[in-house]
Specification:
This protein is an alpha+beta fold. Helix content is 50%, strand content 18%.
C-alpha cells in the first residue's frame, strides 16, 4: 500500500513551502526558492525535497548550501506540524526540470519561427 508515503509527501511539500516562506530567516536564502516536489521512502525515514532556485551559478550553490544547513530546523518544524511518531530526515536537492522545460520551449519557438538552433555544447 503506497497511499501513506504519498500523503506524507504531499503534506511535507505544503509544510516545507510554508516554512521556507514564513519561518526561515537565513540571509543565504534571500533568493527565490520554490519547492517543486517531495519524495518519501517507503519507511518514512527520508524525505527528498526538490527545490528550484532562480539565480544560477555560485548564488544557486550558496542558496542550496543554506537550505541544507537549515534541514535540521525544517525537520524540527515539521515534527510539530505533521504529528508523526518519526519525522523523516530532510534532504534538499536541486530540481533543474524548470530550466529544461524553458530550454525545450525556446527550441520549439525557434523551430516554429525558422530560426537556427544552437548546439547544447555551444551555449
Amino acid at each position: 500500500m503506497r497511499i501513506r508515503p504519498e500523503r506524507v509527501a504531499q503534506r511535507i511539500h505544503r509544510e516545507v513551502a510554508e516554512i521556507l516562506e514564513r519561518r526561515l530567516r537565513d540571509p543565504g536564502l534571500s533568493h527565490w526558492v520554490n519547492v517543486t516536489g517531495v519524495e518519501v521512502n517507503h519507511d518514512l525515514s527520508l524525505a527528498r525535497v526538490f527545490v528550484a532556485i532562480l539565480p544560477e551559478g555560485d548564488e544557486r550553490e550558496r542558496t542550496l548550501a543554506a537550505l541544507r544547513r537549515a534541514s535540521g530546523f525544517v525537520r524540527h518544524e515539521l515534527a510539530s506540524r505533521l504529528g508523526l511518531r518519526e519525522v523523516p530526515e530532510v534532504r534538499f536537492q536541486l530540481d533543474t526540470s524548470v530550466e529544461k522545460g524553458a530550454r525545450v520551449d525556446e527550441i520549439l519557438r525557434k523551430l516554429e519561427g525558422g530560426e537556427p538552433i544552437a548546439d547544447e555544447d555551444e551555449t
